[in-house]
Structures are given as structure tokens and as C-alpha cells.
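Reply to dn_fold:

You asked what the input looked like. This is it:
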Amino acid sequence: MLSTVAWAAQANADTYAILSLVGDHLTIAGQERQSGSHLDQNRYEVVTLPDSTLDDFAVRVADATIAKVRPGASIVTLRTTTDPKLAGLRESWLDADAVGVAELLSVIATQIPPSPDGHLLLITPYRARPELKTDRDSRGSGKVAGLGFYLDATTALRRSDTSELARGYLGVFAHFQLVLVNLQTNAIEAHERVVVGRTYAASRAEDRTPWNALSPTDKIKALESLMKGAIERLLPGMLSSQNPQPPS
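and this is what came back:
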């Protein structure tokens, strides 16, 4: 089910509800040697997170960005608990060209207070090939969705600050969609897909293992940095979009 976390005391003609479905789990991908097949041969592990820290962070960044672009707007934050319907919808959107607005609103409509000009900002996972940036190019194979880490134990990579060379790296990725829905018409007014990632050489770790290239705290900070950069870069343009798509 959903619970309303915050809502302005008085209705405003410009209102936004924010729902993040991207931060309840992490995916850890382990690169395997490719044998020439086009099939994805990587190993994947999904780790369920104990709290909503990453979803809360994404919502705070979106909230602050909306406040800058629409200073008079009222904002409501929707927080999810375990909801099989939402989980199923989220999975169906990973590779889809569009989000099923009608299906989504059938689940959450009662949680959003009425407004003469209401919008929903949905933050949901997107599945794509990793684009893990090095100082020269991008790395990564297979496909991943949402937030997580990518482990490569064979590729030699230099540490960016000291140029120290070691075999292997830790990739940090954030793959998600930002979908802005007009709650009066059910039209999607803007839709952006985010595929961002960074690499951290194994030489950053004392034991030279890719997983230890970042501490647990720094791993979360790296994920937050990717989300923050993408939301702050894309959301202002979405809020000024004048080309709504028809309801789906």
C-alpha cells in the first residue's frame, strides 16, 4: 500500500506528487568472460535493502528541484510499502516504450489529494546495457536495471587520481526513468530515461579487490551522486515540457 508522507495545508493550482520505486533493492552484476555468444553471460544478484534510504534521497532531490523551478508548487510524497501490484507494474516497465498510466493510477489514485493542476513524477527502474565511464571510454556488458554495482575482475584500469594500475574495477550504475504524468488528463507530459555509471579501479582498495574499491558508505554516496546529477539535469526541462503524450 501507499502512504502520504507530506501535503501542503492548502491546495495549490500547481501541485506535484512524487513516487520513487527505484531504491528498495540493489543489483550486483559480475562480469563473466564472453565466449562470442550474444547471450548475457554475467552473474546477477539482487539484494533487498532494509529501508527506504535511496528512495527517500531520490524524492528529496526531486522535491528540491521542483521547488527551484516551480517555487509556488505544493508537493506530496508517496512512500510505498510492500505492494505486489506496484512491484508487478514496475517489472513490466523495465523495457517498455511507455508506462501504463491507467494501471498505475488505479493503484495510487486514492492516495493523491485532488488538485486542479496535479502532476505525478514517477521514478522507476529502466533496464539497459551499463555505461560505466572511465577517463577514456565506457565499460560494461549485459543489461541491468535500477541501482547497483558491476564487478569486473579482469580488465586493467588506472586509478583516476594517482594513475596506479591494477586488474579489475567496481562499477556503480543508476538506470531509471523519470515520468511526468498530468493527473487531470492521464497524459505523459515528459519521459526521460537515465543510464549513468562510473568506474572505480581496484587499486583504490588495500587488498586490490574490485568490491573494496569503495567503502560501504562511499558506495551509497556514489549511487546518490549519480541519481542527484541525473535528476537535477533532466527534471527542469521536463517541468517545462509542452509536448504531452496521449494517455496509455
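The two ends are 23 Å apart (CA to CA).
Hope that clears it up.
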